[in-house]
Design brief:
- The protein is of the alpha+beta class and 156 residues long.
- It is built from seven helices and five strands.
- Strand 2 (106-107) and strand 3 form a beta hairpin.
- The longest helix is centred in the first third of the chain and has 14 residues, at 3-16.
- It binds FE2/S2 (inorganic) cluster.
Length: 156
Amino acid sequence: MPDAQQAAVEAAIASHRGMPGALLPLLHAIQDIAGCIPEGAVPLIADGLNLSRAEVHGVITYYHDFRLHPAGARTVRICRAEACQARGSEALAAHAVNALSCNFHETTADGQVTLEAAYCLGHCSVGPNIAIGQRQYARVTPSRFDALMATTRGAS
Ligand code: FES
């Protein structure tokens, strides 16, 4: 972890120390600082909050909001909630994993795309829905997904 980042992480730990239920807000703060929870932060967090490293690591890996490595240039979220599932999102998800050669919560080898699941993007009647960054797309078929990925990856 670079020195400046470590100093910011230590400051975040200091500001959360003693707060009830500090771990989750602290992890969010550190992810905002570093773009992920760097491995080197785990022992600092554990010491700062008087927890074991395993406890800290367990929370990081339990909640999909947290990542141990920085995200790619773009985050693509595929809705896997019930209404989108009924409209074909699981087939789209399988296609995406194959097309990107990466699993959910992973980043493509070229660092361009991080694939994540979403659980309702708020447009259930026009699924399957995906989001690329903050922009949402409805009725996404596998071929439309491929076209969106070609544009997305070409734009970086
Ligand atoms: S279930 Fe996918 S947008 Fe609501």
